[in-house]
Prior knowledge:
alpha/beta; Rossmann fold; 6-stranded mixed β-sheet; 8 helices; elongated
Amino acid sequence: MSDALFDPALLPLRRARAGRMGRQPFLYERAFDDIVERILLTERRFESALIFGHSEPDWSLRLRNAGVDCVQAMDVPSSQPLPSLQDLCISIGALDSAEPLPAILTALRFALAPGALFIGAFAGGDSLPVLRSAMRAADEADGSVSAHVHPRIAPSSFATLLAEGGFVMPVVDVDRVRLRYASFDALIGDLRAMEATNRLSNRSRRPVLRRGLAAARAAFAALANEGRTAEMIEIIHFAAWTPTDGSEN
Length: 249
């Protein structure tokens, strides 16, 4: 039996469903726009970049327009070896579900060139509090308990993981995005269109029953203000560098 926290077979299925629905990657785009601004503020020209994890079709072009000569994209997980000596690595929406994360960070550190920038973003642990509460109501109504949301990485813990992986000068900050939804189903629709629904290995294979779904909808609607319920997404941004030649971590 696998000890993996995430089921790797689910990611392509989630992506295929998002494609059928009409993808809505607005949170990924928000994170990418922020990261491009941060890169431009470094006042350094990057010759080569690796996009590690989620990538939208125009991201490589947008990085080239920002002055990066060569851009490669690699999915996570991937059986391909990491390209070596990139001087920039961007990872959005991938590291919170990458396994084993400490080993992946170490591998990235050794694959990148000395003095390379590693920058990215992923969902934080305080994301979706209203949805989590609604799903607890659904479990109570169905008389069952199921894992709906996977454990998240705290900002301070990720800074430590970066340092332990061999990166220097780690900086971690949080962007809290507040969204308003007319219904529970509208929120679920957005999460599905962003490929962001449950991929846990130990998730329940049984669908939420009708009474559980009704309880979740009612719990969500009970928090509405002027017909809409506010939900929050926590986006953890990070940046760190690989040591330069001869420097110590």
